[in-house]
Amino acid sequence: MDNGGAEFGSVAVPDFMQLAKDGNIGAIEVLMNKSFGSQGVVVRVDKSDSTLKITLKSPSDSGPDQKLAERVKAGLGKVKPKGFAGAVIEGRTIKSDKLVWSTQWGVIHAASKPKPVASSPPKATVSVGGKSSKEAFKKKVVVALLGIIAGLVGYIAWAMYGQAFKAALTPLSSPEPVEVAESKAESRSEPPVETTPPPDYSYKDAIDQALDAVDKSQTASTSAEWRNAAAAWDEATVLMKRVPESNENYAEAQGKISEYQRNLEYAQSQAIATLPTIGASKAAVQAVFSQPDVDFSFENSPLTDGTPRLLGTAPGNLAMIELYGLEDKLTKAVMMTFIGRGISPELMAAYNVAFLTEVAPGYDWDSEIADSVDDLSSGRSEEVRKRAGSNIVSMTLTETLGVFMFIVSVEPGQAG
Questions:
Q1: What distance in Å separates the CA atoms of residue 283 and residue 289, rounded to the nearest whole number?
Q2: Could you tell me if residue 389 is left (phi over 0), alpha (psi between -120 and 50 degrees) or otherwise beta?
């Protein structure tokens, strides 16, 4: 497998190293999980503006070894993902989400926008049924070693040359200063000019923005309208924070900041609450997969935009569940099964059947799941979409560095 992408059968596999260099956080997360998976460490990668946030989680009560931060730092320094000027690394425990250690550094790479790259699933020979699962996912896969070459680029300050340039313009000798006598009659002093500072409209600007946010909040009914209201409250909060101490309304502005933030949080919660749901709850899914014989570990891991997300991880990192939305109003549910890590076809089928039973009860997995997987593995389809009541069940099969990922996603909507 070279840097230009690999071929599996007749289907191209994306080059995740290049995606990582282009700033794709999903590719960075995949590569890191591949690197640390053998140590039982789960890696989640997120971003905030030009800063990468990397969380290493371990089932150990003491969390992951802090020495892993140096490995991450060295790897990022070589890859130099575009669009990020620095990184924050946290070590946490999986069960309690306890912060054990934290570190940060920069610079990784000069900021630039990452390029979105679509991936296509590979071909494989897979056949999985309900109770009568036949031979599935037995194709041998090869894990490619990654070669990373990078260097740091230094900059020379222009000011170093500015001093030399200034010295070159200085004459070798200067004439003696000439004293000029000035008579009292000719000596005149102009009266000082009084300057009036420009009026400060920062408080008024913040109030005007808040009034706009109130109007948007009073008429909002859909998720998109509530997101617009939240954006208006966010802007009002920013403007109110800019009111200086010299402004006569400074004290009142400080009180309104917390008021606007509460309104912002309410608008954000309404934007999530008004999204279409799949009719499932986090508690029901967690109850099934937390049983002793299944033993998934669950943790809350919200997105940067505030969207609630519950993550579940199987023992040995063989599978992962993502549940988006409020407790009893899930807007999306995803099951990812990492087949190349040694999971048996029977266990893989059991995980997915249990998942679909809870989040898509209208899906006829007994008659459809085997056909869907056959379509994916044969290359006849890149994605299989089936209706399950008012929801849509989609399935994809991809290969990343020798590991097959079978992904089942359930969302509300119409079949396309």
A1: 10
A2: left
